[in-house]
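Worked problem 6 (solution included).
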Amino acid sequence: MKDILGLKHDPLLVKFREARTYEKKKKKAMSKKNKDLVQRVSTHKPSYTLDRPILERYPTFIDALRDLDDGLTMVHLFAALPAIERENIQVERIHSCRGLSLEWQAYVSRTHKLRKAFISVKGIYYQAEVEGQKITWLTPHALQQVMPQDVDYKIMLTFLELYENLLGFVNFKLYNSINLKYPPILDPRLKASASDLYAFTRYVENVADENEDDEETRACKTLFKDMTFFLSREVPRESLLFVITAFGGVVSWEGDGAPFEESNQSINYQIVDRPSQSHRFISRDYIQPQWVFDCINARIILPTEDYIVGK
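Solution. The predicted structure is:
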């Protein structure tokens, strides 16, 4: 009972009351059709932050990492959703989730913290090990998302607000741990060409390799060492770029912002997902995306015969 009574004086509840009062005043001004009054009321819109609740809930950084699974899954989900005004899912919110998810992936990839990846019907599961904590999250497939009507998006957006702030704190701490400024300053050319994840990994790559690695990290970062991959247009580019880079490979793709062309003679493997190719290079293997995921889970380079398209 004492704890519940203490909540009455929580600063966040005070802000919620102020927000309720503000909405009433604004609604009243709009009903009077007084534009000047609406504008004056709008300038006094109350704001709040979740810094204090997050610090109370997660007193240490390890506590935050232990509870990050659901937050990462939620942020990656909204990063893949379309903006829908009727559900109050705004474009700015989608962009925020997109940025946070790419910052996380770039850190995990370039510091070689990824340990496992699994493709399922629901999406792609990943597991990373950060500061000794195993963190598992799910990302949707890169397809157009169908928005079900029986979901309460208002509740999901409430949780998302907490998770956005939590992931922002975590990313800030991780980037500072490798002496990088946060939020990242990206190459505008890569951003303009929609090569977002590549832009983030380029930002992280120059310092990530300077850190001391444990034995498992060293094994992960050398699995695809001295191997060069090229991604055809039909395969999931962002996912493969993430996992190949995390395990030490060099990767390019078909499209804008690619670091090198398909004709590059250093390419060892071309990831494809259709039987017929307009042209083939005899110096490389043409394999399905599943080969990459099976290799990283087995921690060895598997034979490619069973992964040829059409088999």
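Discussion: The domain at 222-307 is CATH 3.40.50.10190 (Rossmann fold).
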